[in-house]
Amino acid sequence: MRTDQGRQRLYAAGWLISAGVMAVSFRLWQLHLREVEQRADEAERTRDEAAQRRAMEERLRIARELHDSLTHSISVIQVQAGVAVHLARKRGEDVPPALLAIQEAGADAVRELRATLGVLRSEEDGAGSGLGQLDSLVARARAAGLPVTVTVTGAQRPLPPEVDQAAYRIVQESLTNVSRHARHASASVHLHYAPEALSVQVDDDGKGTVTGTGTRPPGPGLGLVGMRERVTALGGQLHAGPHDGGGFQVRAQLPARAPS
Questions:
Q1: Smaller CB count within 10 Å for the chain: N or C?
Q2: What count of other Cβ atoms lies within 10 Å of the Cβ of residue 158?
Q3: pTM for the complete prediction?
């Protein structure tokens, strides 16, 4: 009898020891698993930090190149335009509107370049240019000899910064293309604020489509490529192409949900 009781006690002790060993083993396994996860997270964070560091270094390199190559050239153009304006006024002559447009465009280019350099040297995007500068952009285009009309429909409202900037750049690039490639053309800009989107449309009535005659090139230029990349990055759609009866149209649909 005592022998059976001893065996039962021995079995119970064995089960307790086994359970204890299993509990300790399970705890050690949990600690090991947690350590592995922490190491994986640390490795991922290290890779992210390294990638961010490389991206920042590249942005600084681009900023330096832009500063060294563009700032000087734009400043020279701005100074020369200012001297020409000063001399014309000193002689009592009328200053050509195109010259005033060059002077103003140079000042705006310096401002935008400084803003861009600031963005490249920081870790967050800046406000940049937006539709708040649309009136100034249109005024410069008119001063340079391009008739432009602007129509705004829908409930005008503040836009997300990236949408605001993209819309401005689309209008800016479109008007630049009209000035460069469409002879004796006029342009119209139409902004439509819908509850879920912003529509940007720029039309011109230029006639030329042949390269080498001072008119619009037939293929997509880098400006159109840049516009398409901007719109696609925002999840929007872009159409750009000639009208059947002549002229050219750029139409972008940008997601821009109204604040609730």
A1: C
A2: 13
A3: 0.55
